[in-house]
Specification:
Layout: E1 8-12, H1 15-25, E2 30-34, E3 37-40, E4 47-51, E5 64-68, H2 72-84, E6 88-95, E7 101-106, E8 112-117
Parallel strand pairs: 1-4, 5-8
Antiparallel strand pairs: 2-3, 3-4, 6-7, 7-8
Amino acid sequence: MDAHGSIITLGVHDLEKALAFYRDGLGLGVVDRRENLVVLNFGEIPFGLHAVTKSEQGPVTKITLSRNVPDNEAVRRLSQAAARAGGRVVTGPHQAIWGGYSTCFADPDGHLWEVACPANLEPPAEST
């Protein structure tokens, strides 16, 4: 099996509120929009928001989505942007015990995000 990610999709209770958080608050661009689905630009893997109906609303999946950024200032900026956009900062920007610098916030539906600058972050290698 050729395993690779195709898309990450989160179920959200209020599509417009979630879209405002990710697009306006965190700066992700809209790639596609349909009645109950918005796909945002998240680098190599598209990031989807799917409006769930009352019958689809089941237990919340406990995962943490992570994003590495190039420096500590980017960690602070994204934490502040999330809070301004209606997210809840769970742990503010701090020096992590694993050596990097990170923050954790929840989006309006409670999905957790960790934004981190790893201690050993190096620029990606150029592909040939």
